[in-house]
Amino acid sequence: MPYPEGHKLKVRGKIIESAAQAFRTNGIRDISVPFIMKGAGLTHGGFYAHFDNKEQLVAEACRYAINDTISFLQDVADQENAAPKINAVIDYYLSSYHRDRTEMGCILPALSGEISRSSDEVRQVFTHELERMIDFISNVAKVDTAIGSVLLSTMVGTLVLARSVNDSKLSDSFLTAGKQHAKELIKT
């Protein structure tokens, strides 16, 4: 009996979602295709019916994760009644909630260190998605992309450091200082 129309696309989407969650939590190198497929509720034998290789999946997972992050942060901005709306985005992005939930968080702090050692295909997709994220941040902040780049860099760097330490007070202090500095950037 044949699969219903759209089945293959739906399965591919489940694999990409599983990969994005796994990569956000554990990075690229330490995650295997069988682990990703298990996370999607599938056996690893079906992977190559959807992707040529893991690198292609990494690229697709980056696309998916940035779309997911932009959509979520747009909702955060839309729910903010006070101006500037970017403050709500900064407050969420640099919150302990976001810091502690890597599996659903922004993929930029999770993968930026590894991407530099990835294939050109992955780096090209990551670069494009990073540019989209800069544009999003710049638009919400109502600043040019040069300031938007600095703002996003500040937010990502702050989150990387806050996630890296095992001292909760130090981690929280990074988040507090990062929020303050990020908000100062958009006042100019």
UniProtKB/TrEMBL annotation:
Residue ranges of the TM segments: none
Pfam families, sorted: TetR_N
Residue intervals of the HTH tetR-type domain: 9-69
Top-level taxon of the source organism: Bacteria
InterPro entries: DNA-bd_HTH_TetR-type_CS, Homeodomain-like_sf, HTH_TetR, Tet_transcr_reg_TetR-rel_C_sf
Coiled-coil region(s): none
SUPFAM superfamilies (UniProt xref): Homeodomain-like, Tetracyclin repressor-like, C-terminal domain
Keywords: DNA-binding, Transcription, Transcription regulation
DNA-binding region(s) in UniProt: 32-51
PANTHER family in the record: TRANSCRIPTIONAL REGULATORY PROTEIN
Name used for this protein in its record: TetR/AcrR family transcriptional regulator
Lineage start: Bacteria, Bacillati, Bacillota, Bacilli, Bacillales
